[in-house]
UniProtKB/TrEMBL annotation:
InterPro entries: ACT-like_dom_sf (IPR045865), ACT_dom (IPR002912)
Organism of origin: Naumannella cuiyingiana
Domain of life from the UniProt record: Bacteria
Protein name according to UniProt: ACT domain-containing protein
Stretches assigned to the ACT domain: 3-83
Length: 206
């Protein structure tokens, strides 16, 4: 499974044109989600599968051949993961308020389209919860990602951890000195609309 982020003109027919291109290379679209709008463009995430033998570069080249269409990001997406909506996560947090921070962190890769997430204790600089693909962070490394008292992003250069490449993370405070940290390997940067969603859900988890 792959996740492709595309900037396309915010006008009728643009989404259909990209979907048609995916079909021409044999791709199977599982879900599409609008994640933002800016400067006359819509930013859409496509979760899709490609047939054996089809290279991602082939699809990227075909999409960028369309007028005013840019592929911002293309990467593998964990098998079995869906695109969970904010409201679904909020409903689950409301049903179990005592574990709302853990529910949010566990859902974060699906909700915010990233590879990993964790909950860090801001006062003790320790990880309290981490998803399967999250890095093993020491207290020293956690401090590099701070401060955690407001929503923000960090760009991490290759080698920020041994054998780890470049990454982009977003951090947001939650309750009880907890901070939510979500990470993307290689990008793309978190959009203002995504940061607003992260802030909102983190506040609701608190």
């Amino acid at each position: 499974m792959f996740l492709m982020r595309v900037a396309l003109p915010d006008r009728p027919g643009s989404l259909g044109a990209v979907a048609s291109i995916v079909g021409t290379v044999g791709g199977d679209i599982h879900a599409v989600e609008v994640v933002g709008r800016q400067d006359g463009y819509a930013i859409d995430d496509f979760m899709l599968a490609l047939p054996p033998g089809t290279m991602p570069d082939e699809l990227v080249s075909a999409c960028t051949a369309l007028e005013d269409v840019r592929v911002l990001w293309f990467s593998r997406y964990p098998e079995g993961e869906g695109l969970e909506a904010d409201i679904e996560t909020l409903e689950r947090m409301t049903a179990a308020p005592d574990t709302a921070p853990e529910i949010l962190a566990g859902a974060a890769p699906s909700v915010f389209h990233c590879e990993w997430a964790l909950l860090a204790d801001r006062s003790e600089s320790v990880v309290r919860y981490a998803t399967e693909m999250a890095p093993d962070l020491t207290a020293e490394t956690l401090q590099l990602l701070g401060p955690f008292d407001d929503i923000g992003t960090r760009e991490l250069l290759e080698g920020w951890l041994p054998d780890w490449g470049e990454a982009v993370v977003a951090v947001a405070p939650v309750r009880d000195n907890l901070a939510l940290i979500v990470g993307r390997q290689g990008g793309p940067s978190f959009l203002p609309s995504e940061l607003a969603r992260i802030r909102h859900l983190a506040a609701m988890a608190g």
